[in-house]
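Please produce the structure of this protein holding copper (II) ion.
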Amino acid sequence: MVPLSPLINNIMRLRGEILCCIWLCLLQLSLGAVRHYKFDVEYMYGEPDCQEHVVMGINGQFPGPTIRAEAGDTLHVILTNKLSTEGTVIHWHGIRQYGTPWADGTASVSQCAIAPGETFHYRFKVERAGTYFYHGHYGMQRTAGLYGSLIVDLAEGKKEAFHYDGEFNLLLSDWWHKTIHQQEVGLSSIPFRWINEPQSLLINGRGQYNCSLAANLVKTTLPQCKFRGNEQCAPHIFHVHPNKTYRIRIASTTSLASLNLAIGDHKLVVVEADGNYVQPFTVDDIDIYSGETYSVLLTTNQDPKKNYWISIGVRGRKPNTPQGLTILNYKTISASVFPTSPPPITPQWNDYNRSKAFTYKVLALEGTEKPPQHYDRRILLLNTQNLVGGFTRWAINNVSLALPSTPYLGSIKFNVNAAFDTKSPPDTFSEDYDIYNPPSNNNSNIGSGVYTLQFNQVVDVILQNANVLSGKNSEIHSWHLHGHDFWVLGYGDGKFEQGDERKFNLKNPPLRNTAVIFPYGWTALRFKADNPGVWAFHCHIEPHLYMGMGVIFAEAVQNVKRIPREALACGLLRKVFINKKHG
Ligand SMILES: [Cu+2]
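Below is the modeled complex.
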């Protein structure tokens, strides 16, 4: 064989090196950076609304630290449970966990609760830019304050669909003076004790219970708040320059409250919802339900010699909580100058037509992935309030969800059938069910069955609202799906009927992970079961989920690979793992 000349040899070597370089670069691009966070979860004293209470914090902070990453990055969160008597988990709300369903942070679904003193490693990719948050998903720990913001920026070199000069976060929540243990026990007692309305609304973990920032401007018996400025409950003031555009990232992690947010004298342009771009539209205020996120653009085009209120107020339930307030400060003047006009008035709580008008405006930006034109399976989910053995519960198609002690991801993957009800809950409900009256048969079953979806199946879910147990009322619920976005195909009043699908929007339905269902109405969603794992789909109102308002979807669980053993070593699986070790 004739040897290659040294020149050709060199060229070949060089080519090899270049290819190797390109390959490494591509690998780097596809892998992104790994961002490390160390989270110690604990109970601590805090004064979220100027009254001292025990709150859940992370690394001594409440709300928890803001996580910031770029699309394509891998987040590695080392979570240590520093609670002395209970487990914990953290759910990364809006992150789809492709390939890592065990990192979804949902106790009893994707993992075992992390025991006191133990450490768990969450490792997952944030594959899409957008506004997200994280929160506890065990018992009612979110209500206790276990939450924080999670912001994913575009990968370097990519451009947003809109321009802005600066940005800030508004993480919205509601706050009770009763501990979550008192709340949980009340909800599962006979007689039932409801949690009632929150004492305060918090903006970035800050509210004022015993005073009002706007006492001199509104009708109130509360005294004017006085701050030196270093109090934990002093409002978080947002400083802006005149004539600039700001992106405000808003997330609602409320336990119960549906909120309306407004900024005095300023318009808001909605541009993002749940991590997806939407067709921009301009409003005076936005409605935001628990589990939702939005980005709005604010142009600071008002009188720069004034400061302005940012206000949040309760909608959808008769409010008994004062507005949450903070100040938008034009840097041209001092931040301590209070606005001279009253805060924006929150729209009437039960003006549902106004709420619907806002919600219907949220449509996908052109270029957003369109829904498949047909579905393979339709699941109609009727929510009812029931009495089960004297306990007040929420049920879906007459099954009230009770989470098992063995996480579904493990029991399904390893065929531990005794771990949950192997009988699937029904795909529909009785056709003659009267949604306008309280349930005539108010008994229902407590269950842990799952809906098994075929891989890549297109699933339609029609959420159907109805009357509550006593009296004539139908409540707002906001439903959140783990592991996916869904297209919101439409909303309607009354009972969903055959033919209503003709009203579906298949042209530009918004992609979201949370959708509201209005009183006595229905909401239609479509998603593709393309993410192997087990995923909760539930009402994001914390006490409602606690009372059984959710279902479980399992899809292609056999395709899930590389589940860390510590995610699943509890309940019946602990024995399986121990036996394997010794067997
Ligand atoms: Cu609900």
